[in-house]
Specification:
Jelly Rolls, binds succinic acid, binds manganese (II) ion, seven-stranded antiparallel sheet, alpha+beta
Length: 267
C-alpha cells in the first residue's frame, strides 16, 4: 500500500492523515477480542487508571498476544510509514489504549517526540505513530484532539507530569497550547472502527476523558527509522523497545487468517 501524492501533501502540511475503513469488521473483531484478553492479564505492561482497576494501556502487547503480534507486522500499517520515513523501521513503542467507558482518563497536551527525545535520547524526529481504531471514535468517548500544523514547531518546552494520571508524560503549558490553537485550531480525530490515523511525532495532541458508555480502544504503533534508534535505556524495555531489527511484514490477510483459525478451533 502506497500513499498518494495528495495524501502525502496533507500529511506534511497538517501533520496527520486519517485513512477511513482500512481494516474490515472481521479484522477489527479479532483485535477487539485480543484487547479484552490483554486487559484481563495481570502483567506489569498493563497500566491501570488511578483507580488501580480499569485498564488504561497495555504496553508491548505484540510480545504476548498473537493478534497484536500480527498487527505489529501488518503491511497496511508498516508500508505507509516506511514510505514517509524513507527506509526500514523498528518498533519503538506499542500501546493498546483503552479509554474505558465512564472511567477512561485524560492524556494531557503533549508531543510524543518530546518524550522520546528527553527520556530515550532518540536523535531525530524520524519516527511517528500509526494508530488503528478498534472502536469508533466519536465526539463523546475521548477521541484524540490534535492541533493541525503544530508539528512544524519542532520540540517545544515541556514539564514532566507525574501526577495527573497513572502514566508520566512531558506536557505543554496552557499558554503554549492557547497560542498554538489560536493559529491552528483543534481537530477531534473522529473515525469508524477500522480507520487508521497517522501523525508526526512532533504533532501536539491530547485526549479528554471518556464520560460516555462507549469504549474507545486505539492501538498505537510508534515506528522509528532503524538508523534513528534510541541511545538511552532509562525506561523499561517494554515501554521503549531496544530491538532495532527492521520489521518484516506479514501477508495482508494475516488477521483474517487468524480469525479463521479461531473459528475452526471453536467449532
Ligand atoms: C497518546 O497520546 O499517547 C495517547 C492518547 C490517547 O490514546 O488518547
Ligand atoms: Mn501521544
Amino acid at each position: 500500500m502506497q500513499l498518494t501524492k495528495n495524501q502525502l501533501e496533507q500529511f506534511h502540511s497538517e501533520g496527520y492523515l486519517l485513512l477511513p475503513d482500512l481494516f474490515d469488521d472481521t479484522e477489527v473483531q479479532v483485535l477487539r477480542e485480543a484487547a479484552d484478553t490483554v486487559y484481563a492479564l495481570d502483567r506489569q505492561e498493563v497500566f491501570r487508571e488511578s483507580d488501580g482497576i480499569t485498564p488504561r494501556t497495555a504496553f508491548a502487547a505484540h510480545h504476548y498476544n498473537e493478534a497484536f503480534r500480527r498487527l505489529g507486522r501488518h503491511p497496511r500499517l508498516i508500508r505507509p510509514v516506511e514510505q514517509i520515513l524513507e527506509g526500514c523501521v523498528y518498533m519503538h513503542q506499542y500501546k493498546v489504549n483503552a479509554k474505558a467507558p465512564f472511567t477512561g482518563d485524560v492524556w494531557q497536551w503533549h508531543q510524543d517526540y518530546g518524550t522520546w527525545a528527553r527520556d530515550d535520547h532518540m536523535p531525530e524526529a524520524r519516527a511517528m505513530n500509526i494508530a488503528l481504531y478498534v472502536d469508533e471514535a466519536v465526539e463523546f468517548n475521548g477521541p484524540l484532539w490534535i492541533i493541525p500544523g503544530s508539528h512544524k514547531q519542532g520540540v517545544m518546552e515541556a514539564g514532566h507530569d507525574l501526577q495527573t494520571t497513572s502514566y508520566p508524560l512531558w506536557t505543554l503549558d496552557k499558554k503554549t497550547i492557547t497560542e498554538l490553537i489560536d493559529e491552528g485550531g483543534i481537530v477531534a480525530a473522529h473515525g469508524k472502527a477500522g480507520s487508521v490515523l497517522m501523525f508526526y511525532s512532533t504533532l501536539v495532541h491530547c485526549s479528554p476523558p471518556n464520560l460516555s458508555p462507549w469504549p474507545r480502544t486505539v492501538v498505537y504503533l510508534s515506528l522509528c527509522h532503524v538508523d534513528n534508534h534510541i541511545r538511552r535505556f532509562k525506561r523499561p524495555e517494554w515501554v521503549a523497545h531496544r530491538d532495532f531489527t527492521p520489521i518484516e511484514t506479514m501477508p495482508d490477510d494475516c488477521l483474517r487468517e487468524l480469525a479463521l483459525e479461531c473459528e475452526k478451533t471453536a467449532a
